[in-house]
Amino acid sequence: MILQALHDLYDRLAMDPDYGLAEPGYSVQNVSFAVVLTPEGQLHGFSDEQVDHLIPGPKGKSKTLQKPRQLRLPGQAKPTGQGINPCFLWDNAKYMLGFDPKDEKPERTKLSFQEFRKKHLELEKEIADPAYSAVCRFLERWSPEEAATHDSLAKLGSGFGVFKIQGESGYVHEQAPIRQWWQGKQQLARESATLRGRCLISGQEDLPLARVHEPKIKGVRNAQSTGALLVSYNCDAFTSYGKEQSYNGPVSEAATFRYCTVLNVLLNGAMRNKHRIPLADDTVLFWTGKKTAAEEGIAFLFSGGEEEEKDPESVQDIARLTDVQIFFQALRQGSHALGEDGKTPLYVLGLSPNAGRISVRFWHQDTLGAFVDRLREHFEDLEIVGPPQAREFPPAWMLLKETARDGKDVAPLLGGALMRAILNGTAYPDALAAAIIRRIRADRDDKQHPNRQINTLRAAILKAWLNRSPRFEGELTVSLDSTRSDPAYRLGRLFAALEKTQEDALPGLNATIRDRYYGAVSATPGAVFPRLLRTYQHHLSKLNIGAKVMREKVVQEIMSGIEDIPSTLPLEEQGLFAIGYYHQRQDFFTRKDEEKSATASNNP
User: Fold this and answer.
1) Would you list the DSSP string of 305-359?
2) 53: buried, middle or exposed (CB in 10 Å: 19+, 13-18, 0-12)?
3) Are strands 196-197 and 62-67 parallel, antiparallel or unpaired?
4) pTM over cut 0.85
5) Contact 286, 420 (CB under 8 A)
6) Are 251 and 210 in contact (CB under 8 A)?
7) What are the mean pLDDT values of the chain's consecutive 10-residue runs (604 residues total)?
8) What number of other Cβ atoms are within 10 A of residue 358's Cβ?
């Protein structure tokens, strides 16, 4: 299903020039420089082919970076290994010029250039084109020692290079006679394939089968930079019926090229930000069966876009902003607000690195309407009372970030488990809640992070986890539920009331009872609460009469539902304790704000 969906996507992306999809026999590579030649093959100079890339920043401020230009070049990705593998009319500076500013293996560099020159000179008889002959004349005359005299060459990027003829707009490999020769060579190679058979993707018979699924896949997070394979058989143990390598899973060369090329475009192409998001150790791809506005909204939702959401005017592309707003409207009101066909297929693919291969962490296929409904349910489960600046639709990476001290420390498998729960509408992983509870017990607030320990996002995650847990009875509300009788929930509320009393009695404390006792009281309340209740009486005595009566009413209301303080609390009840604490704290602040408003209105 995965390969078929990618194979079918090729036709759609091929019609959109923004994606720059490579045709069979070609690949998209990063090109940094061009060797500019005269029509007679004399060196005219080196041109920098890098392009400006705008990086959006906060408050509409952007910065510009130089990045290699992406071009369609003949052949696939640069072969790896110790062998000498010159490409056709493109390569790195070692092969094209015998030049490497940090050369550690000069003999190998020299040999690379010789093989590059030999390969192209041998083909000149077959390719009758003046531009190609100019390249050959240049290679005949060029001496790698000359490279050091060209200062501009050392300043160029480390990407690949191509050839260009002075005064012509295109590149040498784009000349019509050269393209025809290359395509004819590719056709001969396909016809001479050693093994033919039925393709498992297209179902067609008598097609040349791919021995290795190429081009290699690049762009998966933490995978090998030279590329990895999604489908491969490289051990004798995989051999069956006398078939070797990928002949064990017969896929035609054409279908292999289509699905690998599409996967590379989604991961590493010009439009990758629209389809790819990093999530913990995974790389998540998503696309729809046809071009939809929702694709833009999904990318915006999962990748963040916090600054743009705060300041919509900073978004330069009005069409993109409109797409995002339509998608958010659908999340609030339902899939019927999408403004497009809700039955459009939607695909989500999670990939993770595995040595020289790529592992499929999860695969989800659904309709766009059902996907939006799942997302809306997810955000409804996360909804919890909080400050006005809290994000309405926090992206998945933001949830995962709360589980670790640093984003790079997020458990590798947690991202995939969370995405599966979101996409399928199932229970969130227990590991997610366990990690959140550990961080609540380990973290401390400070001046830079005043609400780090139990913040809105952590409380929201625990609420969503409990509401979807099949073991949990009753549904947690968005804000304080004074009728809820669970001992853990009430103990959390009680702890918040005791802490607030301490803060009111002794303002300006550097550390409250939360800093000293939260970890112990949330796990073993029976051992800690008696001591806290004794200090509570001391703090209560320092309040004025009105505040003392109000606080005592709250504490008595909470304790009226607690018959016995349990000695320990398991994981689920620790989560409930945290939510009770958070709800009660928010209620205190809400009441304080309301009282201020009432006082202001009575004393204009």
Assistant:
1) -HHHHH-GGG---HHHHHHHHHHHHHHHH-GGGGSS-TTSEEEEEEEEEETTEEE
2) exposed
3) unpaired
4) no
5) no
6) yes
7) 92 86 85 91 88 67 78 80 84 88 82 92 89 93 84 74 90 92 85 82 88 86 84 81 84 90 89 85 89 79 56 53 76 75 88 87 90 90 88 87 86 88 93 94 78 88 94 89 92 94 88 89 92 92 89 92 88 94 91 54 45
8) 24
